[in-house]
Amino acid sequence: RGARIAFAPGTYGKSTRLRLDLAVDDGRVDVVARLGLHAGGLSVAGRVRAQRLPLARTRVYAPELGWSDVGGRLSADLRYTYVPARVHTLVGDVRLSDVAVRVPRLDSPVLTATRVTAELAPIDFRRQRVTLDRVRLQGGTLLVDPKAEVPVPLVGGTNAPPAPAKKRPPSPWSVVLKSLVADDSHMLLPAGASTTRVGLELRTHDALLTGSARVPVAVALRAGDAAATFDGQTRVDAFDLAGDLTLRQVSLPAVIDAFGWLPSNRVQTGRADGTLHVTAGGPSGDLEVTGPAVVEDLWLAADDPHEFSVGAKHVAGTVESFRIAGIGHADVT
Description:
The chain is mainly beta and 333 residues long. The protein contains one helix and 17 strands. The protein has one helix spanning 252-259; strands spanning 16-24, 27-38, 41-54, 69-83, 87-102, 111-124, 129-138, 141-143, 174-191, 194-208, 214-223, 226-235, 240-251, 267-281, 286-301, 309-326, 329-332.
C-alpha cells in the first residue's frame, strides 16, 4: 500500500519474465510472457494456453443473439507479440468441444457441435486485419423449421425479426476466412412429434466477412438415397443468396410437407432430379427457382382420391418461374 513502482529504459539489462497460472471454474489458463522496456514503451512477447474454459458466460457479451444458454469448453494455444510502433500480433489455434446453444421457449439446443477447431493466421492489430486459416466443425446439428416464423432461431431466438435498426458505421477491421468445413453434421427438421435428421456438409473459402462482400458457399444435404447440393454465393450483411441447386432423387412429399406449401398428402409420391438456379432474399425477399427438372413416379390426389387424382411415371420440363413471396404462399407459372 502506498508503494510506487516505475520502470526506466536501461535500468535493467535484461527483459523481465512473467508467469500467471489462473483457475476459471474447473478450467485453467497459463500465461508466460517476457516484458522489455524500450524508449518507445513496454514490449511483450507471450504465450497463453487455456484448457477447458467453460463457455457459459460468453452469451452475456452478445445479448443481441438472444441465446439463453451456451454450453461447452474452450481450449487455446496463442502467442502474442507487441513491440511499440512496430509489431502487434496474435497467432495460434482455438478449440471448442461439446458446444450447445439454447434459446428461450425451445427444449432442444438450436446448435450443437462435438468439436470446432480454428487456426488463426497472425491477427494484425495495427492493420486491423484478422485471417482465419482453417475452421472445421465436426459432429454438429442445426435446428431448422421452415414453417416457423423464424425458420433458423440461432440468431434472435424464436422472436420475430425486429424492425430494421439504423445502420452502424462500417467496421475498420477486415476479417478473412480462408477455409471453413462443417462435416459429419446434421440439420434437424421438426416433423410432428418427431425430428427428421438430414445429413449436412458446408464449405466456404477465401471469404471476406466484413462489409457487403459476397461469400462463396457450398452446401450438401443427404437423407437416404436423396441428395441436394447448392453451389453459389451469399452476402455477409444480409440474406441474399444466388446459385445452382442440384437435386438427386429428392422426395417431393417430404419437401412440400416440410415447408407447408400445400395441404398434407396432396402430393403423395414423386422423386425429383434436376439442376435449378435459385435466388433468395435480396431487395424483394422472395425465393425464385428456374431451370430444368425431372419428376418420377408422381401421384397427386385430393382428400378423397375418387374426387381427384392424377399421376405420371415420368415428367420432364423446365421451370420458367417458381416464386415464393412468403411462407405458405407459392406463385407458380
